[in-house]
Amino acid sequence: MSTPLTVRVLGAGVSGLAAAHLLAADGHEVELVDERFTTPAVGTALGLFSPAQQVLSRLGVLEEVRSISAAPEVGTLRAADGRILATVPAGNALLVSRSELVRILLDALPDRVTTTRRRIEDVRPLRAGADLLVGADGVHSLTRRSGWPGRPRARSHGLTVLRGTTALEPPEISETWGRGWLFGITPLAGIGTNWFACLPEHRTSSPAEDLAHLRRTIGGHREAIDAVLDAATPQRTLIHGIHTAPPVWPVREDVVLLGDAAHAMAPNLGHGANTALRDALSLSLAVCGNAEVRRALHRYALRRALPGQGWRLGSEAVMRLAMTASTAALRDRVLSGSSARGS
What we know:
- By secondary structure, the chain is α/β, with parallel strands linked by helices.
- 39% of the residues lie in helices and 24% in strands.
- The chain contains twelve helices and 15 strands.
């Protein structure tokens, strides 16, 4: 390895934790900065596919993650009336609680990673004395907004997401597309059911009222959905909008963006955590053995800019297809016809 670098990583989410671990394991001096260092209160599910699992293996945590994950073989995409529009193989994905994944990554940090609990309002001082600043600070990245031309902010899509967990055994593994709404059901090992819903923007100050609105909007369409909604509680429900990052080149001088800071995407393809983990590995490989930081970051960007933006654009396209209201009937006919021809 070349001369060890002094690295600051802003953000202790999936990408920041993985990057701090991998860079420290390569012998670099790493400081990880976050306001809280806490795990999410509601552990909704992440799907981790083979490339992300390879990163977890390199981090030495794959078997621990696998031991607390569900591994379904197949799920279905359904219309609001219950018709199967497509049967979707799971592709050897692991479904793991986001809270548990963050906890495992935190516990696995090498001792040489220094952790600093601090609220950051200006990223410029973080560059002082550091060879490399890693912005892993999420969709509303302060790093991106303060260091990139035009101060690019995340864009809202005018949608509300509700997601949660219940102790109910999942009645099925499915995603249902209605007219301007969707609802998904997956297993979550050790808990029961992970569920998620998306509908046009509607948020109040009361999670109970938001759940009630969801029940009024999509209740009565399918028994499986009704069963999950009956078991859902405000205490185990998260409510937020969908924001995506603008297209940006992920490096600037000696600063690099990872994960959602670089390419925050709609959740519809389930690849946000996967791209975050691949970003972290690609950064460590680019920096390893390359004494010139800016050259290493250029190498990283060539590897990761196109895949990250590709997943961002693809996820947004699927979101628009899933959430259409005016052409939902046509969408369902096309999908069900394609499924019938393929069977």
